[in-house]
Amino acid sequence: MPPKKWVWDKENGGKFANINRPISGSTHVKDLPIGQHPFQLYSQGTPNGVKVTIMFEELLNLGIQEADYDAWLIRIGDGDQFGSGFVEINPNSKIPSLLDRSEKQPIRIFESGSILLYLADKFNKFIPKKFENRTECLNWLFWQMASAPYLGGGFGHFYAYAPEKYEYPIDRFAMEVKRQLDVLDKLLSDKNFICCEEYTIADISIWSWYGALVLGRLYDAEEFLDVKTYKNVLRWAKEINDRQAVKRGIMVNKIKGNPSSQLHERHSSSDFIHKTQDKLEKL
Ligand SMILES: N[C@@H](CCC(=O)N[C@@H](CS)C(=O)NCC(=O)O)C(=O)O
Questions:
Q1: Predicted TM-score of the model (pTM)
Q2: Span from the CA of 94 to the centroid of ligand 1 (angstroms)
Q3: Which end of the chain is more exposed for a tag (fewer CB within 10 A), N or C?
């Protein structure tokens, strides 16, 4: 029975009990580091984080040097997102957060969808030019932003992270995630990309969650959700996975997996060769 009034139980046994609080704002004073590039990214290599690093690597791959960036690691498990400097650029204390220092006054950008749109508009890339196609691209970008919390906060939380497994929320969110995969599978049945026959921020954004899911990289849930049945999503996911910029982007700010796949901080394109964790650990 829920009590009449909710009270905060700090020790609820959940995976993120030590960092989750019902209060916003900073918990400690800490300035953010600033590097030499126009863009300063503060993030971790989660599905929301990699959207932005993939986008930067795609822009750099096109030769757009103005899109060069420093990627600083924010360890969300350690509560870095509650440092005062981070809260100044994102009062919501979530990664990814970005500072554009190339304008007269630095501009803060938070929410991964907003960051993708900002970069797409600023460089006029990975977003359709025709108004109706741009609108279709934004339909799917917003679809992803609204749908992923069911996958991450709902399914992922109760299937992988909750201290006990409860049938009701797992069933509820598994059903919703499978419905979303079916939406994508039908959409991709006669196209190579999410919209307008071009690779856009909608693909980057959706791939980072649903692509990772069908490729077996999220929550160990491939069998449970029977992801191989979503053949069109799988084909699309594999195709995007083969892009050079995607291979790079998913390494940035990554703190799990094979050390050779983890680039905790990125300040130059040569870091992918010299600064991965396997190399740093040898030093
Ligand atoms: N809607 C936000 C969600 C961001 C988000 O939930 N970030 C997670 C990591 S994927 C985070 O920072 N979690 C830390 C926390 O909840 O304290 C976005 O897309 O940017």
A1: 0.97
A2: 4
A3: N
